[in-house]
Amino acid sequence: MSLKKIELSKQVELAKLTAIKIGGRAKLLFKAHTIDDLLSVLSDFNSDVYILGGGSNLLISDGLIEKVILQLGQEFSSISREKDYLQVGSAVKLSVLINYCLKNGIAGFEYLAGIPASLGGLLYMNASAFNKSISDNLIDLSVVDENGRIKTLKKSEITFTYRSSSLKNQIILKARFKLRHEAGIYKKINLYLKRRISTQDFKFPSLGCIFKNPPELKAGKLIDSCGLKGKIKGQAQVSGKHANFIINLGKANYADVDYLMSLIKDKVYKKYNLLLKEEIIRWT
């Protein structure tokens, strides 16, 4: 049991808490150290809150965010294993989980190596890479539902699709995955990391892939074919290495990124009669 009290911070600079380093200020940011803390905040604000995880695919507007923001503390970052499953808290950073699996010879997450996210966000978005998804080995989830009730959802009770899930109004607390022991985990992690680094842009802050891949197509190739690689607006740029990345050259803002995203949608639609769907989450 945590002895810490719920933390409240005001006028928090959100750019520091996102992967792309863009965002205004949070009027109120609560950090919950217990489930009681979490339920208390949800009750006080009628569950009308933003949940902040790793901020890896989050684009925040530059002004004051009036909506209350809730973050889970380190108490939601535990990892444990039983005979046939691995239990992971939703606040666990992917890098921590990867290292844990590497030390213990546990397979199932190595293809996600290099993504700066926490487990809750990965499950919420059903993160995928190299034709694998994080939901593949999921057993069940512990969540707080839209009515403030704690419940366990079996995988069969959740709809997982390409980089999406039916968990929109749920707050993930922890998850259980099938436990698989394999040899050669280190080699696999290095292989996936090398493939990711060779094709994606990590020199500057970014949101990762901005748009979902349409069926049988690659969003990056569509964007590239429209001549948009390297396109700059303010301090934001369509990556010259991967056209589905928009990078922050230093002091980019929300409007810069929004302009480039709108331009991409417009050009791709005019050329292919295809509307790209955003993969990122926006807070305004």
Give the total of domains.
3
Mean pLDDT metric: 94
Strand fraction? 25-35%
- Number of distinct helices: 6
Secondary structure layout plus pairing:
Blueprint: E1 7-13, E2 25-32, H1 35-44, E3 49-52, E4 58-60, E5 64-65, E6 68-72, E7 79-81, E8 85-89, H2 94-104, H3 119-124, E9 128-129, E10 132-133, E11 138-144, E12 150-154, E13 160-161, E14 164-165, E15 171-178, H4 185-199, H5 219-225, E16 232-233, E17 236-238, E18 246-248, H6 254-272, E19 281-283
Structural commentary:
The protein is of the alpha+beta class and 284 residues long. It has three domains: 7-74, 2-Layer Sandwich (Uridine Diphospho-n-acetylenolpyruvylglucosamine Reductase, domain 2); 77-185, Uridine Diphospho-n-acetylenolpyruvylglucosamine Reductase, domain 3 (2-Layer Sandwich), CATH 3.30.465; 201-283, UDP-N-acetylenolpyruvoylglucosamine reductase, C-terminal domain (Uridine Diphospho-n-acetylenolpyruvylglucosamine Reductase, domain 1). It is built from six helices and 19 strands. The strands form six sheets. Strands 1, 2, 3, 5 and 6 form a five-stranded mixed sheet that branches. The longest helix has 19 residues, at 254-272. It is globular and about 50 Å long. The model has no long low-confidence stretch (mean pLDDT 94).
